[in-house]
Design goal:
With 130 residues, the chain is of the alpha+beta class. It has 4 helices and 5 strands; from the N terminus they run αβββαβαβα. It has a 5-stranded antiparallel sheet, covered by helices on one side. It binds guanosine-5'-monophosphate. Guanosine-5'-monophosphate (5GP) binds at residues 5, 16, 28-32, 40, 87, 93-96.
């Protein structure tokens, strides 16, 4: 089966600015950053999303969390703060089907979830029917 873009980056078959790598995780700069610091962190094992995590994979999650703090220090946002996000599935806004965490920082981030006008309407409709 064809590799997706993050598998290719992991295997160094596609270009990326890799900023950290160890036996468990690879981290690289997002091609279209949403903040001054925007790093993507993936497990070296292909896992499609958080939904597909198995018990034997949980060490990858610990390594991602430990790696995040190291990368935050590397990019000097350890003290000022940063956000770690994973998008899962369609409603979560996941575009690349390879588990990844976004580490974003370098500026004061707004509310975690900021709904557009139409999303607010969807949410209000949902509240009135539930
Ligand atoms: P998602 O929406 O799946 O959570 O995030 C996918 C992220 O991957 C997006 O922020 C997007 O900019 C980034 N991305 C997509 N293609 C590439 C690529 O070829 N190289 C890099 N470095 N980032 C990519």
């Amino acid at each position: 089966m064809d590799k997706n873009i993050f598998e290719k980056i992991r295997d160094e078959e596609a270009e990326a600015d890799i900023v950290y790598r160890d036996d468990y995780i690879t981290a690289f700069k997002d091609i279209s950053p949403s903040a001054p610091v925007h790093i993507l962190i993936i497990p070296n094992k292909k896992i499609k999303s958080l939904n597909e995590i198995q018990n034997e994979d949980t060490h990858y999650l610990s390594k991602i969390l430990l790696g995040s703090a190291k990368i935050a220090r590397q990019f000097d946002v350890h003290e000022t703060g940063y956000r770690l996000i994973t998008n899962c599935g369609n409603d979560g806004g996941q575009e690349v089907p390879y588990l990844h965490f976004h580490l974003v920082g370098g500026l004061k981030l707004g509310k975690m979830i900021s709904l557009s006008k139409s999303e607010k309407k969807q949410f209000n409709d949902y509240k009135s029917t539930s």
